[in-house]
Amino acid sequence: MSPGDARPGALPGPDRRTFVQGLLGVLAALAVSPRAAAAGDPPPPDAAPILTPETRASLAAGQVRDYRKQGDLFLLADAGGIYALTSICTHRGCSVRWSGEGFTCPCHGSEYDRLGAVTHGPARLPLRHLAVQEVEPGGPLRVDPAVTVPPGTRL
Amino acid sequence: MCASMDRKAFLTLLGLGGVAVASRLSGFAAPLGVLAPGKPAPSDFHFVQLSDTHWGYHGPANPDAAGTLPRAIEAVNGLAHPPDFIVFTGDLTHDTDDPKERRARMARFKELVAGLAVKRRYFLPGEHDAGADQGEAFRELFGPTHYTFDHGGFHFIALDNVSAPGSKLGAAQLSWLAEDLARLDHGQPLVVFAHRPLFDLYPDWDWATLDGADALALLQPFRYVTVFYGHIHQQHHVMTGHIAHHAAASLIFPLPAPGSQPKRAPVPWDPAAPYRGLGLRDLDARAGSKARPAAEVPFTDLPLVQP
Ligand code: FES
């Protein structure tokens, strides 16, 4: 009973296509393959490294930057340095929101602290920490949602 | 055709009171380019939207969960004029962690809706169908999660803002949409279906699509665009610019008005007024003609009531 004259959407394929991400003008590669997004699992479909306009100097301890639209992630800084967290809830994959103290998921109410640890279920697994790099010393920060790093990692 | 008067009369006999809403797509003048000169005007037609049936739900918010969908099917089959098609705007089934049970619910749902006296049925996933497996079971049972089709002078676009992690359409689907729209004249009337709202209705309750604004930007150049969606279990009408967005009632339990209470929780079932807040939507599609140029999709929301 699939739709009568419906044309299928862009289905997962092996080829990666490039496009320009409007706001930042960042080139991103698309891999279109739906997968689970729990900690340790393969990255979400649009996962491609994103280039942010932030630098090591522009992010002070306590600051949080929302890059959910560009790459399903948040960029944060604490006393130890800069780190990135996926914004994808480990329960059912909704996009979590910054609450001012931590992250909350609007779908079923999971909560995480600012390090991504679960403080309230139903989620059981923490938010993944993602690899953050400087493109060049002092230059803009690049985050790769496909690369999970240990929670203590800081730039 | 415009059989709406007949239909309304008939529905009254059925015990279905209707609330009509005229969704004028725009105040613009003639949609040049919609109708090639000399071509006959596309005939008007009607279709039905059902939403959020949550097949498999058990809970106090609807003690007749298993009876509600059959009741809605009966109501559709009782319409004086059968609709050209039916669209289900997501959350066909209630979610479960068990992949087998998920497929069993979808299969049973399919069996039930096969009883609809209508030739074509279009299905969209909701996050309850697709959230646990990124739409895998849905695609197995219902086919693609986003697609387009043309009918009666309208171009219909079904968008999937639930399967990709991150509460979004995703870059791949957005470029697919851009490609689809690129070949169309801006006077082409469009009807868009989605599960979640494409605009920020109330993000704290997950009533938003993270990259919905990107889809609306692609739709913006078109003069006649209406979006019909579900997810919020209540009727809701908003314009973003000239684009109209209409949420439909659910067929399981109503939810409170956006942000009207601290928590998003079902409106309790009222034994004195069973099925209150549940219903279906009957839509007239008028693609426009030389004599009546503006395309429009007026609709009537039909509450489910006790027989
Ligand atoms: S998806 Fe986040 S709590 Fe369920």
From TrEMBL, chain A:
It holds the Pfam family Rieske. Its cofactor is [2Fe-2S] cluster. Residues 1-38 form the signal peptide. The keyword Signal applies. Keywords: 2Fe-2S, Disulfide bond, Iron, Iron-sulfur, Metal-binding, Signal. InterPro entries: Rieske_2Fe-2S (IPR017941), Rieske_2Fe-2S_sf (IPR036922), Rieske_Fe-S_prot (IPR014349), Rieske_Fe-S_prot_C (IPR005805), TAT_signal (IPR006311). Residues 51-141 form the Rieske domain. PROSITE patterns: RIESKE (PS51296), TAT (PS51318). This is Rieske domain-containing protein.
UniProtKB/TrEMBL annotation, chain B:
Signal peptide: none annotated. Residues 46-234 form the Calcineurin-like phosphoesterase domain. This is Serine/threonine protein phosphatase. It comes from Geothrix rubra.
